Structures are given as structure tokens and as C-alpha cells.
Amino acid sequence: MFWKKKKPASDEISLDSKNQRKTFRYHFKEGQGFTIQFKGEKLLILNISAGGMAFYNKGFNQFDYDFINFTLDIPNFNGNSTFYAGLRILKIDNNDICHCIFEQCPLEQHELIHKYVLEMQKDDIAH
User: Fold this and answer.
1) Could you tell me if residue 118 is inside a domain?
2) What is the pTM (predicted TM-score) of this model?
């Protein structure tokens, strides 16, 4: 009958999607990212999102972990922009790029990254 809701074809959620992005990433222009220290190595960040970041591999292994902190230069923001969290390498791709996830990251820190990504996008559009 027309007033009864149809059941979905499946209750399963497929994880086979080619689009693995969970949060929006900000991709830095060539050589313009900021640097962090990870396991004693100074690294240039290629992209960042509220979920994690990516950088070129310098001899790391999948699942390597370190606690990181850095200060974000956020346009139009006067608050405390120091970010801290655990960082774990989830995958190292064929281009030798480490794709990482933030762990032990409080909500305020996720919000700080969201603010950073938004302001960087706005700055790119303005210039």
C-alpha cells in the first residue's frame, strides 16, 4: 500500500567505494605546506583534514605512531592555534606518501583543523 514505507534493498553498508575520503582535505600548493616533527624527522605536510594528514615517507612503516604538536597559522583567527594529537600512518601509497589519521584528538582540536581548512580555502579564493 502507498502509505507503507519500502524496506531498503540491503541493510549492509559497502566499504568498497573508491572514494575513501571521510573529511575535506586542504591540499597545499607545491612546497607551501607547514612542517611537523614525526618520530624525529622534520616533514612537510602535503594535505590536512580534521581526520588526518599526509606527507612523503622518510623510512617510516605502516602503523608507525607518534604524538605531534604544532601551531597553525590561521588567517583571521586570534585564539590559541596550537594543535596536538597522536598521529598514526594508516597507509603508504605507491608514490611513497604516508596517509595518516589523528588519534587521541579532542573535539576542540578537530574544530581547530576545520577552522584552519575553511580559512585557507577562503584565503585561496581571495587571492
Assistant:
1) yes
2) 0.79
